[in-house]
C-alpha cells in the first residue's frame, strides 16, 4: 500500500501551518466524521457489520507471512486507519462522553496489547537487519499510542507503553539500573518513541502533577479534550516526603509515569558507566529540553502556581545534573567556540559530530512544531561517538543546564528549601559548583563572539546535512501527506514561515533544480539577513544571560536561608560567596548587577565574620569586583558598587574601630585593576570614590568616630595611586618622573606590604637598567627592612633583625619602612605577606642582592654594613660555606677601600639643584629638587639633557634654561614658556659634623644638605673688585638623604647666608690652604697634582692672587671694630697658607727629577717673594684685640656681625 493507494491528495512532505499541526487530532476526527457522513448518505444507515478497527486489530495480530510483512511495511497507514475507525465508532455511538474503561470490549484491548507486543518484538529483533523499516515502524507505533491516549483508558495505554519498554529493554525491572548493557541504536529508537508519546497535548495532565488546580482549557482542544482536562489536576494523591520528590524512586515513577520514563532515560544515558551511550547525550537532553520549552510557552501553564506543579514533575533532574557535574563541559576553562540552545536552524558545535538535523527534520519525526527554545537532536548515531567515558560537548552541557535552571526557577521555593535542608554539606557544595558552572556557561559573550562563530560555521559544507534531512523526511513523509491532503491543503507553506518549507523532493522532483539554484541566488541578501539574525541572536543571548543569573541568584538566596541556622553554614556560605563573586567577574547586565549587589550587601551584613575572619581571600576578590564596577560607564552600576564598597568598609570598621583589611584589599585591588584592565575608566572610578566619600560624610551614626577621616585618607590615597599609575604611561621616557611616580605608588601601598615590596623591586630593576647601582641597592635595603619588620611580628628569632631599625647604619632613610600605622594588618592574616620574600630565605636573598649592588656602586663600606646584618643569620644556621663566601667578599671590599683611599678613584656622584617654573610642567611647577647625576657630570651636560628632553615634549622654542643661580621671580617669566634653572651644588657639613665625616665615603654618603654660592655686588653686578665682592651662600636641605631609592629628592628647606668681601677672602684662602695640605700629605704622593696646586698658590700672576687679597684686606686696620676679628682671622689664614706652601715646596723637591730642578727653583723664588711681601701684612696685629676683656654690662652682641642670615622655608 504505497502512495498510489492513499485516498488523500496532499504531498506528505509539504509543510502545514504550525498551528494546524498542533490541531492534528481535531482535524483528523473531523475528516473521519465527514467520511462517516458520506457513507450514511449513500446507504441511509450506519454499517451493521463487525467494527472495522476491531477486525483490523484481530487480523493484524493473526496475520503471517507476506501479508504480515506488507502490513509492517505500511504500518503507519493501518494505525491511522484504526484510529480513525475508533473515533468514527465513538462519535456515532455517542460514547465520547462515557467512561474510557467502558468504551471498548476486552477482546479488542487484548488484541491491541498483543499487536503492540508483537510489533515491539519485531523492532527488537529486526533493528540490526533492517534499520530503515524499524525506524518507520517505531515511529508509527509511537504515534498510534499517542493517539490512543486521547480515546482509550490512560492506564491501559500506559500498560501498552510498559509492554513496549519490557520488549525493548534487557532489564524490565524499573527499580534496577536500566540499560547498562543496552545497544545504543535500540536506545535511540526508544528515545524517538518516548519523544513522540510525550508530545501529547495533555502530557502534563497524564503525569498527575498532584494539584487541585485546573488549568485553562486547551487552546485547540480535540474531541477528547473535554474528558481529559479534569482527570489529572483533580486527582488527590497522598502526601509524599520531600526527598522522594527529588529522586527517581518507584513511587515517583508510578505517580508521574511518562515524566519518570523521560528522567530515567536521561539518568541512564548520562551515566558515565553506560556502555556506548555517549552519542545519545545530545538526543536525550534534547527530549527533556523540548518538553520544558513546550511547557514554558504553553498558555495553560502560565500561572505561577500551575507552573510550579509542572516543575515538580522534573525535580529529580536537579539530582541527575548534580551527578553528571564532573562530565559537563568546563565553561570556566576557556572561551572557545560555543553554541546556544536557542535559535531555529542553528549549527551545533563541531564536537557533536556531523550527523545532526535541523528543527524542520525533528518536527518531521515528531509531527508537531518545535518550541522556539528547542534544538535538534541526533537521529542517526555517529559510530565514532561511542566513548564509554567522556565529557559532554558544550552544546549538550548548555542545554542540560538550561533545563536545570528552568526547574530551579519554577519549582516551589518552600519545596526547594526543605530539600536543601536534607542535603549533606558535600551535596550542597556540589550544587554550588553546579551553579558556578552555570554562571560561566551563560555569560554574555557579545556580538563579536557570534560573528566569529558564524564565519566559521558559514564555511562548513552542508551537503551531508541536506542528504540526511531528505532521508529522514522521506522516511515518514507519507503520514504527513495523508494528514495534509485530508485537510485539503495542497499549497506549499510560505517561505517566510517560522520553520521554512518542508516540501519533500521525493514527491516533487520538478522542484529539485529550483531548490539547488535558490541556494546560489541572492547571497548578498543572505549576508544581510545573517547580520540581522546575529544581532537578534546577541539580544536573545543577553536576555538569557540575565535570566539565568537571576535564577542562580534566587537559588543562592534560598541556600543561604536554608543553611543560616545550621552548624555547617561557614563552609556553605563560603561557596555561596564564591559563586556570587564569580558572577560579578563575568559580563553581566545592569539589571542583574543591581540584584547581585543587593544580595552581596545582605550577605556581608548578616555574616560579617565570613569575609573578615574566614574567607579573607574572597574579601580581596570582592574588593576587586566592586572596584571594577565602580569604574563602570553605567551610573546605576557605579551607584550600587559604591554603596557595597562603602558598607564593606563600614562593616569592617564596626568590628574593630578600623577597617585596615578593607583598606589594604581595596588598595591592592586598585593596583590590579589599573595594571591589568584594558577598558578601565579613570574618570568613572573617581566619581565612585567621591560618592563613597559623600556617604562617609553624611553617615550620622559614625560622624563622631574616626571613620569619616579614615575613609577620606583612603580615598585620597586611592586618588594618588590612580593618578600616578595613569601618569606612568605618559612618562615612560622621563626616567626621573617615572621613578618619582613609582615611588609615590609604592608609598601609597605603605599598608600593603606585598604590593610595596613589589614596587620597590620594580624600582630597583629600573635603577639597574640605568646603572644607578647605589639607588638599586637602596631599594633592596628598603625591601629587606620591610620584610624584617613583618618577620619580627611573625617569628621571635634573636638572630633575625628586630625590624627596620637594624638597617639604620646602612641608610637613615630606612626608618620609613616601620610598620607602626594603625592600618597595618597582622602578617599572620591569610593573604598578607604571602610572597616568597616574606621568609628568612627571602630576607637573605634581598640582602645579598643589596650587597652586590653596593659593590657595583663602589660603596664598599655599605657592603660591610649589609653583611653585619646577614652574618648572624648564617651563624645561627651554622652555614660555614655561606660565611666563608661572605668573609671573602668582605676581604675583597676592604682591599678596594685601601687601594682607593685617596678618593680620586671613587667618584660617587655629582649633585645639581634643578628648579621648574611654568604651568607647562603641571605638578612640577615651582618644585625644586636636588638631582644626583653620575660622577664628573658637567653642568653643561645636565643642562643639555634636560633642555633637550623638555624641548621634545613642549617644543624647542617653549623651553628656556635660566643661566644664573639667582632667586627666580616667576612674575617676570613668560607664562607660556617652561623655564628650568640648574645649579651645581656640593655637600654641606657643619663644623661639628666634620669630626665624624673623615673619609671620602663619609663625605659622600647620607647627604641631606647641599650648598651653592652666588657672587654679587651691591650695585647689581655679579662680579667686582675684591673689596666689592659679596657672596650669597644657599644651603639646601632635602627630604631624604642621598643615596636614596630615587635619584632626585625634593628640597624641603632653604637657608641663605650672605658673606662680606673679607669673609669671601677668608673662605678662599682656607680653601687654598686645604688643597695644599691635601696634596702634600697625599699617599701615595701625586707630583702633578702637587705642582698644579703650588702653581696656583705661589706662581700666580693674576690680579686676584693671594698677594692681591692680602694687600686689599690687610694693608690697613679696619675702622669698624666689628671687622677686627675677620681681619685677624684672614691674617692667620695667610700665616697658615705660607706654612703650607713651604711644606708643599719641600715635598715637591723630594719628588722631582733632575729635569725639574729649574722649575723647583722658580717656585721657591716666587714663594720667597710672596713671603717677603706678606710679612709686614701678616705681622701687623690689631692692638684692641689684645686688651683685657672687660666685664659685659650690656647685652651680648657676639653674633651681631655683618653676616646677614635669611631663612626661606
TrEMBL record:
<dbReference type="InterPro" id="IPR027357">
    <property type="entry name" value="DOCKER_dom"/>
</dbReference>
<dbReference type="InterPro" id="IPR046773">
    <property type="entry name" value="DOCKER_Lobe_C"/>
</dbReference>
<dbReference type="InterPro" id="IPR046769">
    <property type="entry name" value="DOCKER_Lobe_A"/>
</dbReference>
<dbReference type="InterPro" id="IPR046770">
    <property type="entry name" value="DOCKER_Lobe_B"/>
</dbReference>
<feature type="region of interest" description="Disordered">
    <location>
        <begin position="1"/>
        <end position="27"/>
    </location>
</feature>
<protein>
    <recommendedName>
        <fullName>DOCKER domain-containing protein</fullName>
    </recommendedName>
</protein>
<feature type="domain" description="DOCKER">
    <location>
        <begin position="747"/>
        <end position="1183"/>
    </location>
</feature>
<dbReference type="InterPro" id="IPR026791">
    <property type="entry name" value="DOCK"/>
</dbReference>
<dbReference type="Pfam" id="PF06920">
    <property type="entry name" value="DHR-2_Lobe_A"/>
</dbReference>
<dbReference type="Pfam" id="PF20422">
    <property type="entry name" value="DHR-2_Lobe_B"/>
</dbReference>
<dbReference type="GO" id="GO:0005085">
    <property type="term" value="F:guanyl-nucleotide exchange factor activity"/>
</dbReference>
<dbReference type="GO" id="GO:0007264">
    <property type="term" value="P:small GTPase-mediated signal transduction"/>
</dbReference>
<dbReference type="Pfam" id="PF20421">
    <property type="entry name" value="DHR-2_Lobe_C"/>
</dbReference>
<keyword id="KW-0344">Guanine-nucleotide releasing factor</keyword>
<dbReference type="InterPro" id="IPR043162">
    <property type="entry name" value="DOCK_C_lobe_C"/>
</dbReference>
<dbReference type="GO" id="GO:0007409">
    <property type="term" value="P:axonogenesis"/>
</dbReference>
<comment type="similarity">
    <text>Belongs to the DOCK family.</text>
</comment>
<feature type="compositionally biased region" description="Low complexity">
    <location>
        <begin position="1"/>
        <end position="16"/>
    </location>
</feature>
<dbReference type="InterPro" id="IPR043161">
    <property type="entry name" value="DOCK_C_lobe_A"/>
</dbReference>
